Amino acid sequence: MVSAAISAFGTAFPPPLDQRAAWDEFFAEHYAGSRIAARLWTNSGVRTRHAAVDPRSESLALASTGARMRRFVDEAIPLGKSAVDASLAAAGLTPADVDAFTVVSCTGYATPGIDILLARDLGMPESVQRLNVGHMGCYAALPALATVADAAVARGQVGVMLCVELTSLHLQPPTDDLEQVVAHSLFSDGAAAIVVTPDAPGLELVDFVACTDAATAEEMRWDVTDLGFRMTLSPQVPVVLEANAARVTSGLLARQGLTIADVDHWAVHPGGPKIITSIAKALDLDEDAVTVSRDVLRDHGNCSSATILVVLDELVRQRTPTRGQHIVAMAFGPGLTLYMALLRVR
């Protein structure tokens, strides 16, 4: 039976922005010196983020959504190209080898989409099949990955998936809404690409599962406004995820005759430090199991959909999983949605 595997990763980031410097040189004044805001900022778990638009030199807080979308195209094209180039080089492939190209983003839109523009600039075939996944939020990489895997299995396609997110474009006007402070303290910019090939060495994509707790849909939102996209991020999010994580994980694993104890490595989307802690508690994981997730949050912030791919890439680099080991990747987003993938090293 044909199976699909992630055979290579590629990442790209805008210039780094020190978290403390961002507060001292912009956000402290932006939030009128609020001590609560300062404490939330300090406790974000982020040390370095990345910003295509550095608010210290250029604030988009009052820019129109149209202006932000035009900027998205300008910034996303070179960033996405760099990530895709890196993934193809790591896989030993060229753009001409790509059958299907999937682009994921919840931070910008354009028509023609950046999928078309990037395929053109990269030199992919005119016959390349494209899919553009938008506004699903931080978990979007996993349902998109499932679609790419299906194409590899059903039609033998070589696929490239790119997640490119530019949250710095969505700086909001000053507010005393603490959920906005939390969002601005966590979210960052970045791009991550993967190559998925049929029957290749790498991380075999074994199974996927989703759980949407619609009763808690208002706890996490990403609303399109006249001044960009505005995040709602309730402090109840870690509580909801903790309540569902063990049941959903066990269901995913049981379909393969596995249990939580059989999982060798965990790739947990670092939506924030409390989310990582809640997942570890729900699954009874020790701190070492989520160290890579905390490292990614510390060094890159939360890059929305791109983040889980960055975590997987770092996990492979740091832990060098061996043949036959199992990895569970999970990410969370609006809905409130929990999405998971089971991978096996081959």
From TrEMBL:
Gene3D superfamilies reported in the protein's UniProt record: 3.40.47.10
Keyword Hydrolase: no
Active site: residue positions: 138 (acyl-thioester intermediate)
Any one Gene Ontology BP term: polyketide biosynthetic process
Highest taxon, organism lineage: Bacteria
Pfam family, one: Chal_sti_synt_C
Domain Chalcone/stilbene synthase N-terminal: 4-199
EC number: 2.3.1.74
InterPro entries recorded: Chalcone/stilbene_synt_C (IPR012328), Chalcone/stilbene_synt_N (IPR001099), Polyketide_synthase_type-III (IPR011141), Thiolase-like (IPR016039)
A GO term for molecular function: naringenin-chalcone synthase activity
Location of the Chalcone/stilbene synthase C-terminal domain: 218-344
Keyword list, A-Z: Acyltransferase, Transferase
Keyword Acyltransferase in annotation: yes
Family: Belongs to the thiolase-like superfamily. Chalcone/stilbene synthases family.
Name of the protein in its database record: Naringenin-chalcone synthase
